[in-house]
Each structure stands twice: as C-alpha cells, then as structure tokens.
Fold this sequence. Notes:
Layout: E1 2-12, E2 18-23, E3 28-31, E4 45-52, E5 64-73
Parallel strand pairs: 3-5
Antiparallel strand pairs: 1-2, 1-4, 2-3, 4-5
Amino acid sequence: MSLVVEGTIQRSPMGTGTWALVSRDGSTYEILKGAPKELLQAGLRVKVKGQVREDVMTLAMIGSVLEVKSFEVIDP
C-alpha cells in the first residue's frame, strides 16, 4: 500500500534499535533499513512518500514497516 504521511522522525530503542516516523495522527511507522541517511535524524519533521511493506517482519514491531521512496523536510 502506497502512502504519503507527514510526521516526526524518532529513534526507538525497541528491539535492536530502529528509526520510526510518528505521524500527525499518532500512527507509528517503522522505517525500513536502507532509508536515506539524511532522513534519519531524531526530531526531523518530514513528508514521506513510501510503501507499507506487509511482507517484512522486524524485531522492534512498533508499527507498520514503511519503505521510504522519497521525502522532504517540513519547516517547523
């Protein structure tokens, strides 16, 4: 499922540690490994275009796994 979501990047200590996108409505998406390094900054507000990966499981299990296709930084 493709989607566009706005939210804030967070580092989660769950599992072995992972990056997450917490959307404005409070939904949490675990960012799939291999995302751009420029995206992985705690507190960064972004608009992400991506795809929810139903075929991927993780140790953290903090939300749907999101494969990032592109992103843009949103001014605070």
